[in-house]
Amino acid sequence: MTINKTKGVAGSRKGQPALRRCVGCREMINAMDLIRVVKSPDGIFALGTPKSPGRGAYICKDANCLAKAAKSKGFDRSFKQKVPQEIYHSLEDMLK
């Protein structure tokens, strides 16, 4: 990702929200309204912040989306490998 001093992050438009696709419902939603799961460069999965380094996947703050993501293996597809069950349990606890 490159940073342009006049525009900010490359590819973003000034004044428009960053949209990301939820792995559960597959809808495009403002990134600030989603939870980010990160696979770090070390291969460790964690719940991350928008600035956490590594590959990220997003999910709505809704238990139904988490159920859909688990059933359709949305996180596994996003990261191209199996996501540990601890991540799903952490997300469930966060959504309660």
Would you mind describing this structure in some detail?
This protein is of the alpha+beta class. It has a single domain, classed as YlxR-like (Hypothetical Cytosolic Protein, Chain: A). Helices cover about 30% and strands about 25% of the residues. The strands form 3 sheets. It has a 3-stranded antiparallel sheet. A two-stranded antiparallel sheet has the order 1-2. A two-stranded antiparallel ribbon has the order 3-4. The longest helix is centred in the C-terminal third of the chain and has 11 residues, at about 85-95. The chain is globular and about 40 Å long. Mean pLDDT is about 90; it is low at about 5-10.
Number of strands: 7
Distance between the termini: 34 Å
CATH class: Alpha Beta
Taken as a percent bin, the fraction of beta residues is 25-35%
CA-based shape: globular
CATH architecture: 2-Layer Sandwich
Q: What topology, given as strand order, has the largest sheet?
A: 6-5-7
Helix content: 25-40%
Rounded mean pLDDT score: 88
Low-confidence stretches: 6-10
Number of helices: 3
Q: How would you classify the helix and strand content by structural class?
A: alpha+beta
Name the CATH superfamily assignment. YlxR-like
The main sheet comes to:
3 strands, antiparallel
The run of helices and strands is: EEEEEEEHHH
Total discrete domains: 1
